[in-house]
Protein: Xanthine phosphoribosyltransferase
Amino acid sequence: MEFMERRILQEGEVREGNVLKVGSFLNHQLDIGLLEEVGEAFYEKYRGAGITKVLTIEASGIAIACLTAQKFGVPVVFAKKSKSRNLDDDVYTAEVYSYTHQTTNRVTLSKRFLTSADNVLIVDDFLANGKAMEGLLDVCSQAGASVAGIGICIEKGFQPGGARLRSKGYDVTSLAIVESMENGNIVFRK
Ligand code: 5GP
Structure:
């Protein structure tokens, strides 16, 4: 069994609304050793892909992106969840509906930090309905940046995000794919 699956079985808690809590190692307390393994796994997969930046969205994606970017020797850039109404002209913006908070955030990213010269690896903690990822892909498209791949710690395979992204041709690498978690019983996709 893969390291992420093992850890989910040990410490993951299934909550109402198909939410998987992993606050003890990924979303609140951070296990840096585990994040290092995450970075290594994404590096092994994309080392030959000419990655120039690792892109994510605040807040939970940042630690994953840092440990990944360290392996590639490239910067991290993260989309910010903006509350400000007055936006500068020098930012890309996208709307992102949050599954866990059930709110829509506008995310912004400075045009200085993502351009058509970039070839990015996008990473995040969870992939569920794919809204966060669609926002990041929208920002990449505005920048003219290419997307070499998408690295996800935990994909909830019973929600449509992963299938939709793969059908659009994106290379999605998920370290664990939860097939179902009915009655608190977590089953992974083989
Ligand atoms: P999506 O946009 O793909 O529907 O959801 C992805 C985002 O929602 C992730 O960035 C993650 O923060 C959050 N999320 C979605 N499902 C879960 C879940 O089951 N558990 C936790 N902890 N976060 C989730």
Remarks:
- Residues 2-188 form a domain with the Rossmann fold fold (CATH 3.40.50.2020).
- The longest helix spans residues 32-46.
- The mean pLDDT is 96.
